[in-house]
Structure prediction request, 404 residues.
Amino acid sequence: MPRARLTPASVTEAAAALVDEVGFDNLSMGLLAERLGIKTPSLYKHVSSQADLAHRVAILALHEAGDAIRDAIQGRSGSDALAAGARAMRAYVREHPGRYAAANAVRPAGPDDPLIPASERVLASWAAMLSGYGLDPGQEIHAMRTLRSVLHGFATLEAAGGFQIDASVDESFTWLVSFLDQGFRAGTTVGAVGPAAGETGH
Amino acid sequence: MPRARLTPASVTEAAAALVDEVGFDNLSMGLLAERLGIKTPSLYKHVSSQADLAHRVAILALHEAGDAIRDAIQGRSGSDALAAGARAMRAYVREHPGRYAAANAVRPAGPDDPLIPASERVLASWAAMLSGYGLDPGQEIHAMRTLRSVLHGFATLEAAGGFQIDASVDESFTWLVSFLDQGFRAGTTVGAVGPAAGETGH
DNA sequence: AGCTTAAAGCTAATCGCATTAGCTGACCCT
DNA sequence: AGGGTCAGCTAATGCGATTAGCTTTAAGCT
Prediction:
């Protein structure tokens, strides 16, 4: 065999680091090759395309984020688990905005795409955390989606610089987590709120 | 003067329609030109670049969404206003996913970018709605950010096909709105929750 | 009606970036 | 020492955005 300096995994790592620096949208094969000290076409010896590369970065990100969230939740329960998990996720996105963007930009390529178990692992951690609140089983899915929506939305808006006012974003995040905690502890009842349903259909 | 068939505004409208069909990422000058029955370079007589085009679509989207939300909130207050506003926003994103993506992809180009007042108008509607809950003034900013995070996160995840399980997404949205409503009505107290702060810095 | 002229559109050309084709050299194994 | 395999290279292709420069249309004026 010839020299094995680079591997798909090491290329993916380098791409992940690059994407966190320059932003997912600015990822280019040329830039990555330059970082690795090789010429652009040589990259194709390790990944099959830029889409494949992004896909690998997404899987890496989901694994890392999944580990971070699992570890944060580990050994805690209820409010503690929620706060620790949420903080871990926010921290991950702040430290790795490009990887997180990659994870959001990519769609599973098929039924046996490793992306699927990787994201399921993340969801499983959230589910384990939520189970500590002893919610009504019929509401768990809604609580899960609400949780995902808030955390994803907050992380995305923060990464995009969407929070302009000078008020502390850290404080808002703490408030948000507390808000969720109180809601989950209260065991929100279903029941529609507001005027008769309109344009959302259903 | 010559024929004035197309204008920057009409080109932007066409781009908005196109982007809702094919997705923001698949917008291309060639595709848009084809839709308009002209050749690609002719587009540059109306918009200065693809980035400029995306920027115009984003402004259009913010105006439309802002109107929709304002109209929905109009004449309601409290839970009704929240539910109507949230539904209006979700409906807008579902009907115009490409425009919404454009609005999120674009950053203001300067201090007098028309994008800024357009997004402020949206924020103002949410603020007006929230004021009906009579929250502690110090908490309003946090409630606002929480609200934006959830709605943005939900809309984004839904548009990305992120809600896989067969449980009704409509029902989850109703639950989410109710969850917010109860939290706002309870006037969440600040106070950190969970273990001592860790990696989020602060 | 005819002339002027600015703008709308077109063709041809450039540029950057992803990707492919085909060659070469290094390294491991026998 | 000899061979096979693979990493990396150079050269070439192709597509999409953008620019340059020409042509044509049609509104407004006389």
About this structure: The CA atoms of residues 131 and 137 of chain A lie 9 Å apart. Residues 197-202 of chain A have pLDDT under 50 and may be disordered. DSSP finds eight helices and no strands in chain A.
